[in-house]
């Protein structure tokens, strides 16, 4: 099994931990499901029973040892249910976080930075495939040519003239700008009227931090659920 997963292993991973996980995954993988990457926690103090996260071409699988390592709990989420993924690097490692469309958030902390980056890259590729699926190869069939029948000279084509209406009120045909959007020509420097940068100018870490701040406002009752849903939807569109 380890020989088949050499492309997944790197200097930060424990081959014994990978072997234990893959042995249990043999009976869990579906048909045509392939493991893309496996990341294992590396806690700074005690790292006896680390959590792991497995990404395949079909889902994300969280692996948590139970009963002193005698058993393992598996929780999986299909890529269709994943809304976004994030990576936040720190001094002692990195956190890999993903959110679902049902507003659930899961984080695996103390991951080596190389593993967290590869997880994030694989997750982005899978989410991009869902948004922009590869077109299927066209099926070419033998089609018999259709016989054309020339119209008879006795049939005359009549064209009905439609009277045109002059438009005098141009406001009726111009789209009305939605509230909350800004004119790019009025703000070429990417700053809105309140002095804040636009969401399109923010990095992934800044967008994730802004999403967390809005969640705190919701939990403290400072904004309504509907306002939070709109803000979250707008932020996720830039990730």
Description:
This protein is α+β, with helices and mostly antiparallel strands. It folds into 2 domains: 3-131, Pleckstrin-homology domain (PH domain)/Phosphotyrosine-binding domain (PTB) (PH-domain like); 201-239, no CATH class. It has 4 helices and 7 strands, in the order H-E-E-E-E-E-E-E-H-H-H. The strands form 2 sheets. A 4-stranded antiparallel sheet has the order 1-2-3-4, sandwiched between helices. The protein has a 3-stranded antiparallel sheet with strand order 5-6-7, with helices on both faces. The radius of gyration is 27 Å and the shape is globular. It starts with 14 loop residues before the first helix and ends with a helix. The relative contact order is 0.09.
Give the % helix. 10-25%
* Strand line-up of the largest beta sheet: 1-2-3-4
Strand-residue proportion? 15-25%
Q: Would you count the extended β strands for me?
A: 7
- Major sheet attributes: 4 strands, antiparallel
- Outline type: globular
Which residues sit in consecutive blocks of at least 5 with pLDDT less than 50?
Answer: 164-191
Secondary-structure class: alpha+beta
Order of helices and strands: HEEEEEEEHHH
Q: What is the CATH homology-level superfamily of the largest domain?
A: Pleckstrin-homology domain (PH domain)/Phosphotyrosine-binding domain (PTB)
Distance between the termini: 36 Å
| CATH-derived topology of the largest domain | PH-domain like
């Amino acid at each position: 099994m380890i020989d088949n997963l050499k492309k997944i292993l790197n200097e930060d991973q424990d081959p014994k931990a990978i072997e234990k996980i893959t042995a249990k995954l043999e009976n869990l993988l579906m048909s045509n499901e392939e493991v893309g990457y496996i990341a294992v926690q590396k806690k700074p103090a005690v790292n006896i029973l680390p959590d792991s996260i497995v990404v395949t071409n079909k889902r994300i699988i969280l692996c948590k040892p139970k009963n002193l390592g005698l058993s393992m709990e598996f929780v999986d989420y299909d890529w269709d249910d994943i809304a976004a993924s994030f990576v936040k690097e720190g001094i002692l490692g990195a956190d890999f976080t993903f959110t679902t469309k049902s507003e659930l958030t899961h984080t695996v902390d103390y991951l080596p930075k190389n593993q967290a980056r590869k997880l994030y890259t694989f997750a982005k590729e899978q989410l991009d495939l869902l948004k922009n699926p590869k077109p299927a190869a066209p099926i070419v069939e033998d089609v018999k040519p259709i016989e054309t029948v020339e119209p008879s000279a006795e049939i005359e084509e009549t064209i009905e003239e439609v009277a045109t209406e002059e438009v005098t009120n141009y406001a009726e045909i111009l789209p009305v700008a939605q509230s909350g959007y800004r004119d790019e020509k009025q703000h070429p420097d990417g700053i809105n009227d309140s002095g804040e940068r636009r969401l399109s100018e923010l990095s992934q870490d800044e967008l994730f931090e802004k999403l967390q701040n809005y969640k705190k406002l919701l939990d403290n009752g400072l904004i309504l659920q509907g306002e939070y849903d709109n803000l979250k939807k707008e932020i996720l569109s830039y990730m």
